Amino acid sequence: MNTNNSGGNDGFSGQNVDQNEIAKFEALANRWWDPNSEFKPLHEINPLRLNYIDERAPLPGRKVLDVGCGGGLLSEGMAQRGAHVTGIDLGEAPLSVAKLHGLESGVKVDYRRIAVEALAEEPEHAGQYDVVTCLEMLEHVPNPASIIQACAKLLKPGGDLFVSTINRNPKSFLFAIVGAEYVLNLLPKGTHEWRKFIRPSEMADFLRHAHFEVADLTGMTYNPLTKIYKLGRDVDVNYMMHARLDGRS
């Protein structure tokens, strides 16, 4: 649920970033690791996300890049499962929280404030990652296709990319904005803009143009009565996608 990444002279060129989106998460950063805060949904879906990634691209020993890492929830989880993780983000406050939590937890993650596009231009990082994750973030940037292209540059041929975002349709407006932000108060009001949501067909198109092959599409649903999230076939609102970079690239 975070934005893309850049920083000062270390990667703000290109500016594929919405400063209003950055400000939203900067303001909430100190509550990132509180499971009862505005980030409660992230805490509750994190095991689902981790299991999905680990099952499809086993994490132990893998070199992993977490794009839009925010306060480090997913990054730490992947590191705990044996991955060598780099987390990047544009928000200075969330990264400070991530680094501090890493010191407290003893979980090693390399955090940097840099745009994924800028990181992809660094020779020592291009083509070096086994796995790239970009979760709950693409709906917050002006040009998601640019993010996907940069992820392709950073992956080794045959590498795995995991993305998650929100579908754009009347149901997602009702559930992800009206329901989640105004009725159930699962998220702060104004967290999402419906026009920035991405249909699975659009995501698949971004991936194909970046030489990825879509390996899997799965939905994530929330039951307000049981308060349980689960993965399944319903991709009408939230969904995750696994893609593999063409080994010939």
TrEMBL record:
- UniProt-listed GO biological process terms: methylation
Mention any Pfam family matching this sequence: Methyltransf_23
Gene3D superfamilies, sorted: Vaccinia Virus protein VP39 (3.40.50.150)
The name on file for this protein is Ubiquinone biosynthesis O-methyltransferase
Q: What organism is listed for this UniProt entry? A: Marinobacter nanhaiticus D15-8W
Q: Which UniProt keywords apply?
A: Methyltransferase, S-adenosyl-L-methionine, Transferase, Ubiquinone biosynthesis
Q: What does this protein do?
A: O-methyltransferase that catalyzes the 2 O-methylation steps in the ubiquinone biosynthetic pathway.
- EC number(s) per entry: 2.1.1.222, 2.1.1.64
Q: Record's superkingdom?
A: Bacteria
Q: In which pathway does it act?
A: Cofactor biosynthesis; ubiquinone biosynthesis
CDD domains cross-referenced by the UniProt entry:
AdoMet_MTases
| Binding locations of S-adenosyl-L-methionine | R49, G68, D89, L135
Catalysed transformations (reactions): a 3-(all-trans-polyprenyl)benzene-1,2-diol + S-adenosyl-L-methionine = a 2-methoxy-6-(all-trans-polyprenyl)phenol + S-adenosyl-L-homocysteine + H(+); a 3-demethylubiquinol + S-adenosyl-L-methionine = a ubiquinol + S-adenosyl-L-homocysteine + H(+)
Extract the InterPro entries matched here: SAM-dependent_MTases_sf (IPR029063), UbiG_MeTrfase (IPR010233)
Family to which the UniProt record says this protein belongs? Belongs to the methyltransferase superfamily. UbiG/COQ3 family.
| UniProt keyword annotation of Transmembrane present | no
Q: Name one molecular function that GO assigns to this entry.
A: polyprenyldihydroxybenzoate methyltransferase activity
